[in-house]
């Protein structure tokens, strides 16, 4: 197992995230803690999945690691020993709500990171074609994002992130909008890519099955404010495929264990003052996971 070998790639140290939201009664701003004391050390080549109830701070966590959101409330993130201060090409991300470039075609979206890296036009074209094939979008190269379905756009985003070969991949429910069969294909492809390229991956999902299929370690989070409840090591052999897992009793045991961890998670009964204030409260749906 690669879990406890190799050098540390990502160090998250007591990350905390506060959002300021307006209290409708007092009209003042109140602190809303979305992430609390989140510390995690991830070794190079490890695939970490993150599961937790809706609203527990998973997307917040990934946005901070990507450098898209600045952490307010303390803590630090280091990648290869360097402090993260903003987005950079060492991390590829596939985020909810982080859109494709609407003015670029599928092909040119996928080539974007390669352009930034200074890869020649010819080579960019070759690499883009390889990833277009991987995400099953042949024939759609010249379409613009608004001419694609949601699932297709998501696949372009995946190809765009993979094409420039970042060492770290941050993926926020990347297969949620993709149909079941394509999802299985893409999960199997992601497993292959990761085993070939030794990428370090942080993958948020609401599917326990998907987490166990893909990951070396599954981080189970508590309801808001998100903390780590437990980390479950997935001691299943690799290479893995969907077909292998369907036949594996050990897989079922680990899925079951994580299910139990999530379902006995304490759900806060009373929502605190900060949360009852703004529109944000409407989004808090504790424990809607699965
Ligand atoms: N920009 C923001 N401003 C205020 N509150 C936010 C913001 N983004 C997220 N939140 C709140 O922080 C909590 C965690 O959100 P999020 O990270 O999206 O959770 P998850 O991805 O686990 O569902 C939620 O209660 C959400 O409403
Ligand atoms: Mg989310």
Describe the structure.
The chain is an alpha/beta fold. The protein folds into 2 domains: 1-11 and 41-90 and 168-267, P-loop containing nucleotide triphosphate hydrolases (Rossmann fold); 103-165, no CATH class. Helices cover 35% and strands 23% of the residues. Helix 2 packs across helix 3 (121-134) and helix 6 (208-214) crosses helix 8. 39% of the residues are buried. Mean pLDDT is 87; it is low at 269-290. It binds adenosine-5'-diphosphate (ADP) and magnesium ion. Magnesium ion is lined by residues 58-59, 96, 172. Residues 19, 21, 32, 34, 52, 54-60, 224, 280, 283-284 line the site of adenosine-5'-diphosphate.
Care to give the gist of this entry?
The protein has 290 residues and is an alpha/beta fold. The protein has helices spanning 58-66, 106-116, 121-134, 150-163, 180-197, 208-214, 242-246, 249-263, 273-277, 280-283, and strands at 8-22, 29-43, 47-51, 76-79, 82-83, 91-94, 168-172, 200-204, 217-221, 228-233. It has ten helices and ten strands.
